[in-house]
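Hey, can you fold this one?
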Amino acid sequence: MFKILVPAVAALGLVAFAAQSRDTAPEADMAAAPVMGWSVHHEGALAKLAYGVANSDQLALMVSCMPGDATAAVYGDVRIEGARMMQASLSIDPLSGGEAEETRIPVNAPALTGLAERGRMTVEGDAGLFQIAASREERRVVGDFLAYCAPGRA
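Sure. Predicted structure:
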């Protein structure tokens, strides 16, 4: 039970943290708060685009794909707003290790390409709608991830 409960509580905390505006938080609180960001990791041929705290299991969103796939699997406690999700199936959630419904998204979906081009993605979590930003370097990382996943690459 704790194996499922602890990651779930941690993920809810991440969603709440991500929903807070950085402009309104006192500077002292920002120094102590974990910094969330975008990163890409590879497990063999599988690429994973993750939004969370670096070098930790604290992730709010993960998108994974194989090279040349037209779609990517989406996991996490937030849902990508405006994305045309497709074919949900039951699988193992890599974030919690428990059963989860796998949702797929086209790798050329405006939500993903917009993150690479404009540095913003709107998501929905328990706290409602909010935007996740990407720095210039993170935008490049997201673009590289999308190029790796692009159909026709194998």
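Residues 73 and 104 are 4 Å apart (CA to CA). Let me know if you want another pass with a different chain boundary.
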